[in-house]
Design brief:
about 375 residues, alpha/beta, 7-stranded mixed beta sheet, 4-stranded parallel beta sheet, 8 helices
């Protein structure tokens, strides 16, 4: 585990350590004037010398520690490599539950489904893309955490190739079967594009893709308006290219059953997301998350050829149409024994452990101790 500071400039607050020192140096006991007789006949003596003195050492040290911890809190301390390395067992819905329980003796047991629910919860009924979930799980787990995947004999939702992960996976095939997801014919989704001047260049690529979906000689069913233009009907796909938070009207339109695709600089609410389009390097290009009865899709990169070279590729309209269609592709069936993941994939650094909450608790406790020392009766009138 490696500690680090995300904002080292926050340590500049350590300059505040001079405050309690000045307070303790400048403190003076209460002085009362006393009348004396004439002192002119007394021998002149050297004036008393003052010396630097610190009183209340426990209180001074506690205040210094408290300010140092506050400065450390501003510097945003984190701890890399502190993830849970307990063996992780993922069970594909459809695998025999009794056999899976005999394998999950030690470690964390979870369903291989969106959100990775605990194995003690009811089995998810919907079939999810196995390869995408395994890649997501591989990216979430810290390096060195053992991963075991329990699958039925036949997988219903599989990619065209075996997933490649950053770690070796224990692939256990048991009895059972996955629920087949019915395929629906993919219809050409009519588009309603809403864009501002800063994203107008990217909107042209989407209009060209919509034109390629139509038979020869027919115009593209894609109408374009300003970013604040009226919302389309529910049977159309909304593509909104604009930065900032989505307006409440757009969110309500999606929650009512609409499908919207927003630009990468749009602020969307946090939620469980799945990847519906990856590039050749297995990086996500379009993510989707449920929002009420609808779907909210989001580009992960700006729509420029330099950031998204897929815009210039011939299969861009095909992938865009698949992402905007409710049923993107025909579910693929494959023998689980032939679908074991390969190694050599890209390793992702898991999110570091944020130490700010723990520091906040420690600061609160020390503050209570400081107040008790500073206000106790036996101390008297002292700063």
């Amino acid at each position: 585990m490696t500690p680090a500071l995300l904002l080292p400039l926050g340590l500049a607050a350590l300059a505040a350590l001079i405050v309690p020192l000045v307070i303790h140096i400048a403190r003076r006991s209460e002085q009362l004037p006393t009348d004396f007789a004439a002192l002119r006949w007394l021998r002149q003596k050297p004036r008393p010398r003052s010396r630097l003195r610190f009183d209340e050492w426990p209180l001074l040290i506690l205040r210094l520690i408290l300010l140092a911890l506050v400065a450390l809190w501003f510097a945003r301390p984190v701890l890399f490599g502190a993830g849970d390395k307990t063996p992780y067992v993922a069970v594909v819905p459809g695998a025999d539950a009794a056999q899976a329980q005999t394998i999950v003796v030690e470690g964390r047991g979870h369903w291989l489904a969106p959100g990775f629910p605990d194995l003690k919860t009811p089995r998810p009924t919907a079939s999810a893309p196995v390869a995408s979930l395994i890649r997501q799980l591989d990216a979430r787990l810290p390096s060195g955490a053992p991963l075991t995947v329990i699958v039925p004999q036949v997988l219903q939702v599989a990619d065209a190739e075996r997933p490649r992960l950053s770690r070796p996976v224990t692939w256990r095939v048991v009895s059972g079967s996955m629920a087949a997801r019915p395929a629906a014919p993919a219809t050409v989704p009519p588009l309603s594009i809403r864009t501002d001047p800063d994203h107008a260049a990217g909107a042209r690529y989407l209009q060209a893709a919509a034109l390629s979906w139509q038979p020869s000689g027919r115009p593209a069913d894609a109408e374009t308006a300003a970013l604040d233009g009226p919302l389309p009907k529910a049977d159309r796909r909304l593509i909104r290219l604009g930065a900032g938070t989505l307006p409440p009207a757009v969110i309500q339109w999606i929650e009512a059953g609409g499908t919207a695709l927003v630009s990468s600089d749009a602020a969307v609410s946090a939620g469980q997301r799945a990847v519906v389009w990856r590039d050749a390097l297995d990086r996500p290009l379009i993510e989707v998350q449920p929002l009420g009865a609808g779907r909210l899709l989001r580009f992960t990169r700006p729509l420029t050829p330099s950031e998204t070279p897929e815009l210039l590729q011939a299969d861009f309209p095909v992938h865009l149409k698949a992402a905007l269609t409710d049923v993107a592709v025909q579910p693929a069936r494959v023998a689980a024994a032939d679908y074991a993941p390969l190694t050599g994939g890209r390793a992702f650094d898991p999110a570091p452990l944020d130490l700010k909450p723990w520091l906040a608790v420690l600061i609160g406790l020390l503050l209570l101790g400081e107040r008790w020392l500073a206000t106790r009766r036996s101390r008297g009138a002292i700063p």
